[in-house]
Design brief:
The complex is a heterodimer.
Chain A lengths: L2 H26 L14 H9 L6 E4 L4 H7 L3 H8 L23 E4 L6 H15 L5 E6 L6 H12 L4 E7 L2 E2 L2 E2 H4 L7 H4 L5 E5 L3 H19 L2 E6 L17 H8 L3 H11 L5 H24 L18
Parallel strand pairs in A: 1-2, 1-3, 3-4, 4-8, 7-8
Antiparallel strand pairs in A: 5-6
Helix pairs in contact in A: 1-2, 1-3, 1-11, 1-12, 2-3, 2-9, 4-12, 5-6
Chain B lengths: L1 E4 H15 L3 E5 L15 H5 L4 E3 L4 H13 L3 E6 L9 H7 L3 H4 L9 E6 L14 H5 L5 E3 L4 H13 L4 E6 L6 E4 L12 E4 L4 E5 L2 H15 L4 E5 L2 E3 L4 H10 L2 E8 L4 H12 L9 E5 L8 H7 L3 H11 L1
Parallel strand pairs in B: 2-3, 2-4, 4-5, 5-7, 6-7, 10-11, 10-13, 13-14
Antiparallel strand pairs in B: 1-8, 6-12, 9-11
Classes of the chains: A alpha/beta, B alpha/beta.
Chain lengths: ~325, ~325
Amino acid sequence: MKKEEALDLYRQMVLIRRVEEQAALLYQAGKVGGFLHLYIGQEAVSTGLVAARLPQDRFITAYRDHGLALNVGLTANQVLAELLGKATGTSKGKGGSMHMASVEHNFWGGHAIVGAHLPIAAGLALGDQYAGRDGVTVCMFGDGATNIGYFHEAVNLSKVWKLPVLWVCENNQYGMGTAVPRASAVSEIRQKAEGYLIPNSRVDGMDVMAVKEAAAEALEYVRKGNGPYFLEAITYRFQGHSMGDPERYRKPEEIKQWQENDPIGIYRKFLTGGKKATAKELDAIEAAVVEEVAAAVKFAEESPNPAPEALFTDIYVEAA
Amino acid sequence: MAAITVRQAISDALREEMERDENVFILGEEVGVWGGTYAVTRGFYDQFGEKRVRDTPIAEAAIIGAAIGAALTGLRPIAEMMTINFAFSAFDHIVNEAPKLHYMFGGQFRVPMVIRAVGGGGRQLGATHSQTPDAIFAHFPGLKVVAPATPADSKGLLKTAIRSDDPVLFIEHSTLYQWRGEVPDGEHLVEIGKSKIQRPGQHVTLVTYSKMLQLSMEAADALAKEGIEAEIVDLRSLRPLDMGPVIESFKKTNRCVIVEEGWRSYGVGAEIAARLYEEAFDYIDAPIKRVAQKEVPLPYNRELEQLALPQVKDIIAAVKEVL
């Protein structure tokens, strides 16, 4: 990996972290409506996956989508403006935190009904297979999504039709407040793929390099026409399920233990320890991100609300 | 003009559009090798191959979800629900995904897909297999809901639905497939969201759609023998709903009976009646009547089932009440 690329992964993870910290503050200030699910702690997963993609690879994920949005190339401006419901947001202020997308970046959302985007991901992959393109659809979802019927329908279909999908389960240990063993018959989620004879593996989701490497291998496998692959990334969210989570389901010590496993810290050590970058270089990146995010908050706050007429636009492509 | 059945009209529409556009394909349960459980796609598998006529697992959410995803990539899937009763298993994708994506992502996504679903009672299939839940689906903005009756409208509306850049739920009725009627030769397209006067009259307005058009026509024939001329407005599309011809007719007749196969409560008739009160109050000369299904889960026994479903005599009686 070139140095520039290595440093950019660091920048992306720091950008996610800083954007979300600001998002939390904006939420507490009453400027973000609805729900706000933070990705903090899981940054290495989406960053590693996106680092391994080719431009023709589609991404689709669940409602914890800010991280992926920034990885694929949406700006902090577009993400923060969407959180504030502004016309300049990536979904023009009509989607909000859970519904970000960018067709330009081959990013197909931000879907908020647990598991419902998995059949849609199968369809995206079908589209590429049908047209003879070599793109792979990367579908991310939480451990909780693997207990709903949509998961099983979609994963089964992907195998039956040999669809070019990379299923990525972000196992962050809890579906909302319910620990995996309390909700899933198998705690090693990748075993569910075994039931459909889909090759699978587990990866340390706190290590961006490990995720990138595993994703690259999996993408190559799928791209060759072998059908789907299932990757389980073991990770942890440092914040609550969403803002206002009382967190009665896990102990502070557990959270602290995982926080010592911070994906940004791990990667920083990797870069400096391996002499791939100096602490000074990384500090400079952090400083630049802080500045960028401060400017983005200002941009979002100063952006206009959607015009009232926007209420009735884009209901149908063809106006009635 | 050739007289063909509704089944043939739908089949012709599918075939013509698949021959016209490589991006159109069919997916659903038993649509391929079997030829469709209602024989609508018989011969398609041989003509178009398994890539474009795709048998699926019995997994409705996967069928509709995959159709949505494929539509997002620019294909034009036609997803078949073997019956509309099974569409409940894909309810989230039909009402909570397909109709939302264009709006929710600020116009970036397009979902050009058709969901074909067969509904209706009268075939002794019992409570879970006989429903007419059209109004439920018509409740959701972002979805277009079409429910034609005649062979010509079936063909023309289906072809338009396939070419539409929006998701369209195309509702067929299982006891209309053998209905025969004339369909214009050559390219025949019918605009979505246009009601149509299927029979002119001046004494009473019958507003109906789908299977109930057939019964309303029979009732109108019987009434004509008594000198009562009913004007029949066929809605054809439930969303967008075209009230124009309904109101125009009502301003002339000042009396209205709405005939629907679904349950009365919160139904299509309730919507039409409310719209008449809102938009044509000054023209009301009699209470607006609704003929609808009895509020019971449809029973299996033939006589009980027919008691629950609207009958021609119910329409005639309702008309006489408002005159």
